[in-house]
Amino acid sequence: MPRPHEEPASGDAARPGGPSRPATAEEVQQTPEFAALRRSFRRFIFPMTALFLSWYALYVLLAAFAPGFMSQRLGGSTITVGLLFGLGQFVSTFAITMIYRSWADKKFDPEAERLRERIEGAAV
């Protein structure tokens, strides 16, 4: 039998505070549900980040190494290719934000909410 100040053996009933103790962050991170949630997030974020950084790098490289192309005026106006590419950076940032928000609302947030409810429900 463990002494009062020692940690009991593993298992819910052996946790300090009994089975109603909330799960620790480390315990939650070890669950398959959390691992699946993290994988889902990474599968969305990493490609989207790579896409945006590639687009941004293209803009910077064209500005540095193709100034003639970037300074071409379109339709005889003051609007240049470089200006459109620059404005495209803002547009793509907003588009990525909206795509992420839609994805998170439909797929990520419901799964995260189910995991939170399961973890908090286990603490009751």
Overall geometry: elongated
Which radius of gyration do the C-alpha atoms yield? Answer: 25 Å
Number of separate strands: 0
What would the average pLDDT be, to the nearest integer?
A: 84
Please estimate the helix content: 55-70%
Q: Which class do the helix and strand fractions yield?
A: mainly alpha
Which regions contain 5 or more consecutive residues with pLDDT less than 50?
Answer: 1-18
What is the string of SSEs from the N terminus onward?
A: HHHH
User: Sheet with the most strands?
Assistant: none
| Count of individual helical segments | 4
Kindly give the count of domains.
1
**Head-to-tail CA distance between termini:** 27 Å
Q: Which band does the percent of strand residues land in?
A: under 5%
Pfam families: DUF485
InterPro entries: DUF485, MFS_trans_sf
Region (Disordered): 1-30
Keywords: Membrane, Transmembrane, Transmembrane helix
Description:
The chain is an all-alpha fold and 124 residues long. The chain has one domain (31-122). The protein contains four helices and no strands. The protein has helices at 25-29, 32-65, 67-70, 81-122. Helix 2 (32-65) runs antiparallel to helix 4. The longest helix is centred in the last third of the chain and has 42 residues, at 81-122.
